[in-house]
Amino acid sequence: MSNHTLADVIRASAAAHPDSAAIVGEGRSVTYAELSDRSSAIAGGLVAWGLQPGDRVAYLARNATEYWELFFATAKAGLAVVPLNFRLSADEVTWILGDCEPAAILAEDHLTHLLPADWAGHKLVFNQTGEPEAPEGWEPFERWLAAQPVEDPKRDLGGDALACLMYSSGTTGRPKGVTTTVAGFLWAVDAFGAMFDVSPASVSLVPTPYYHIAAGGWSLIALAAGGTIVQFTEVTPANMLGLLVGHKATHVIMVPTVMQLFITSPEASAADYSSVEHVVYGGSPISETVMLGAQRVFGAQLSQSYGLTETIGVTTFLRPEDHVVGPDSKLRSAGRAVPGLEVAVMDPDTGETCAPGVVGEIVTRGPGVTKAYWRNPEATEQAFWPGGWFRTGDAGSMDEQGYVFLKDRIKDLLMSGGENIYPAEVENAIMAHPAVQEVAVIGVPSEKWGETPLAVVVPKQGESVDADELIAFTRERLAHFKCPTAVEVIEQLPRNPSGKVLKRELRAPFWAGHDRSIG
């Protein structure tokens, strides 16, 4: 491993490529030399404030160059960064600040109201387009930074020292702080950078917020390679297309639903994608239709990654050579374990390893897996089986070749007439319907069966969905007991701030008056 600390990452890239563009796109563009110098000045300022090794510094803002300046500053000062979801409520932000107790925070001026008025840490405020409005108690970031000498304090930590604290979405309660160590990040930089051929010539388009491990992790890999990241402050199809083409992106990170927009929009499908070498997607499997369309439009390699915040975003990897149609196609799988990680399927009740093809809980262990949840020993204990196996909470199976097939979140399992139904499988079938934009399948009460599947569908713009026709459509693709018994059409699915569908909200009206919410 060439870098021993995260601070070494930016030092090495700045030494090798001082005048190369590190960050372009929306926000302030910087070279590697500028990124390194500004991070050194910030680091020195944090040390001068009296922050001690291991202290946390929070970031509450949209994607901005300031995030990476702060990230590498905390690395140089022996601190840890805490990127906060800027879509959270004031109550949620207050709770997280109380949990991680940062010594300082850097925030955009329009988000400062989310902090409690009596919060006692050091407060820096910035604006991406000019001089910020600094509320009482806040110090303008650029003014503060200008007063700091450009001197690297070289107080960086390595190994199992905390580097980053990301909070899970918390759909079942208060969020958990996921700890990522310096060693974990450095392992990911080496392992994934090699897998995806990231180099100084790479231009990476990462249109998700930095508080997501996918954006933060991939961007770090690109910066470690001396490549360029194309930054988004606000993501829309139009600016994503414009930035992709305008900056000649070589590596593009997106979800299948966004891929579908690119291949169905006349303007997007006609654009010049000759620069694109690799499209990496995650979040859900890809259909044959979308895969073939993406191969036609982008003319690039496709890879699927599956992972969690707790695994630095990638656990398994469906390689480009697996993206083929045929009787032995692996397209419905999430691929095989990333080299260096172990993946298995275990019985969620006993912890015994499942035979090939038998559904259980996906578990993993290795250098990219979190060591613990922040100040939450109970959640940490529940998350690990003996032997260091991390429990993902995802249900799935593995075939004889080691390919993982996800079924659903274990808690999302439906039982109808004694049969297990995994909503993700039903949703994948429904998503193949040409009129469907999004779908969530939930269990609703049934006197006969205990519960039966209901499909909550969002139609594509200008399309309509007929319930009987859609049910017949799924019956052509699934065993009948798995098919929805009813369809409800709505304008949009309820989501939490991280974009996950809140199925509990969809279920609630149907289970009102029942003493349990499953059949």
UniProtKB/TrEMBL annotation:
This protein's record includes keyword Ligase: yes
UniProt keyword terms in alphabetical order: Ligase
Every AMP-binding enzyme C-terminal domain range: 425-500
Family matches, as Pfam families: AMP-binding, AMP-binding_C
GO terms assigned for molecular function: acid-thiol ligase activity
Family note: Belongs to the ATP-dependent AMP-binding enzyme family.
UniProt cross-references to NCBIfam families, sorted A to Z: PRK06187.1
Listed name of the protein: Long-chain-fatty-acid--CoA ligase
Gene source species: Aeromicrobium marinum DSM 15272
